[in-house]
Fold this sequence. Notes:
By secondary structure, the protein is an alpha/beta fold.
Amino acid sequence: xxxxxxxxxxxxxxxITRSVRSALAFCAALQDGEVVVVDDGSFDDSLYxxxxxxxxxxxxGRLRLLAHLKNQGVTAAKNxxxxxxxxAWVCFLDSDDELLxxxxxxxxxxxxxxxxxxxxxxxxxxxxxxxxxxSYHDPIIWDPARYFKNANxxxxxxxxxxxxxxxxxxxxxxxxxEGLGCLRIMKRHGAGVILPLPLRRYYTDHEGRLSSKxxxxxxxxxxxxxxxxxxxxxxxxxxxxxxASLALKVFCYFLLGCGGVFTRFRKxxxxxxxx
Length: 275
């Protein structure tokens, strides 16, 4: 099997069907793939809706549903999906985004062109069709040095080769901080590639998303922890400038986390008391 699309979801029954439908259409265009949904302890109607709307796909093995008994965070859910996947490549898709089935042929072409890389990344487009992030026309060799300089050049769709010896690519406690996992893979298995072709439609129009302003404020401590862990693990390989930059990010995100705690406290204080 060429590709497994892993979709993680938490309390998004109103959005998950759109994402799953696009992923199934993407795999159908490839004629070789599966969709794995990991519900992260939602305890709402999400799984029921998927079982009802996609019963034939489940019966034929095109869609598999997994569930955590309690909420563990998006990176833990991605690890669960990665371990359960059967494809040669594992693609991670957020439950409010869509794949672009009409561009699915770009994936096997990229794998043929770069057969040895451990990570492939494709661009994202906004709902209006415009690119997310920087514009470029040629593939970018993505190694740790380029990561520390430019991160992932804008939001990307990440695929990880399944046969690398990482059982769980991400740290469970670093929700929304997948960069460290990618750095570890690149350090051990070589550089990845970021291709200029878009394969994902990227939405940011609701508060439940980690990239929303409210969620970004509240996850400051996680971002600080992620940059601190990166700084410690890659310390011998980093220039003085990169070390200083990461240390500054740790400090700034820690302050952001403190601001998030203060915001929560203020909101709690301002909530009306019901007798």
